[in-house]
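Subject: Protein record for review, amino acid sequence with backbone structure tokens
How to read it: Take the token row as a discrete description of the fold.
Enclosed: The protein record, placed directly beneath this head.
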Amino acid sequence: MRRNGIKSREISGLLVTLLLILFVFLPFVPLPVWSLAEQWRFPDVVPTLSLRAWHDMFATHSQVMDAVVNSLGLAAAVSLLSQALAYPAARALGLYVKRGNKTIRLLLIAPILIPGISIAIGVHVLFLRLGLSDRWIGVLLSHLIPAVPYSIYLLYGFYAGYDIGYEKQVRLLGAGKLQTFRLVELPLLQSVLPLSFLYSFLISWSQYLFTVFIGGGSLITLPMLLFSTLSSGDFTLLGTLCIIFMLPALLIVVFSSIGLKRDGYKGKEVHRVDPNV
């Protein structure tokens, strides 16, 4: 009787999981169909298939490849700079700053809470005066505004439970600051650093408002092409662009989830610290 109850609960849990998966992925089902459809009109159950949209994507006159390169370059640069800027702030908040810690964290999360269009307009006015508007560097700096707070919060959660005694022990054995970071801190950061990198990448990859306001149309990214195609009403091109837009994000999620399951110390030998290095 007890086994039957356990099996019924397992079946119920499996059904709920399948329904949730179906609910999440069902909106994406029409995208590959649209990308291969020349036309799909009522009452046709099956659309007329064509590779026209995919040919247009990779044609010489297409802006898609340039947009993909611009989006990838921006997202990668924003991810790296976000970690570099968030690391000292998160470490200080997690280990040293005790007075006013909550107030500082609230101020850091302000760019996430305030409507994006308000920030984009204010940043646009500021960048116009600084000569950063309509430039790649200006778009890059604007993408850091929503990306850095996420990185700080993720890394802060790590340092809030971090035992600095590990570093002290290694320093007593003669290790320098760089050795301590490489041998102690960096392996432990591998549990959260890929996730922080992933969030920053996805924020920049999907950013539209800051790119439009600060870039002024001089820098074409994939989200900008998506919005312009949406207004045209061409669902065939829209489905193709959506698939291209989702692929890097899906690949990063898969590889990051695999990397997060690995132990940073597994398979590594214990190195003796050389005090002369």
About this structure: Confidence is low (pLDDT under 50) at residues 267-277. The longest helix spans residues 64-95.
